[in-house]
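call fold(seq) -> tokens
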Amino acid sequence: MQERKRTVRKILVRYAAVTAFCGIFSIIYNHFSHGIHSVWMNGLAAWPFILGLVPAVVLNRILFPAGEAQTGDPERNSWGRASEDGHGEDGEQPVRPQVEILKDVYRFGIAAVTAASCLKGVLEIAGTGSVYPDLLLYAGFAMLIVGAGGVLFPAAGSRKK
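ret:
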């Protein structure tokens, strides 16, 4: 369980670092933009904060409430299979569960929306435009919906009985 706590803390630190980087990048870029500002650039740090850091903090509070002892089955690996050597019950490498893949899709969605916001801000400040940041933004929102929906509402056939 300590390993899982460390993993959650790493995720929190990563989202905080990305949020800080985006905020600093936005401030510096706006400083050198000759007085032209963009809503997309000003709100750049909001995407990783709202979509990444806030849900990670909320999930951290749900998974590890303060003052409550955590219990877990130390004989089971992260895929729910009993194993001592990290392999599956039949000796093969375990397949990543669907939920982990959907979490990655959600993370890629955060990255896509953040990058699209940055690109839209840069192009708006430069006085030009392109359709590609819009497409990236839509793709990012689609990844966010698929990732969050798949994690929050798993398919009936993939639930453990």
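The mean pLDDT is 81.
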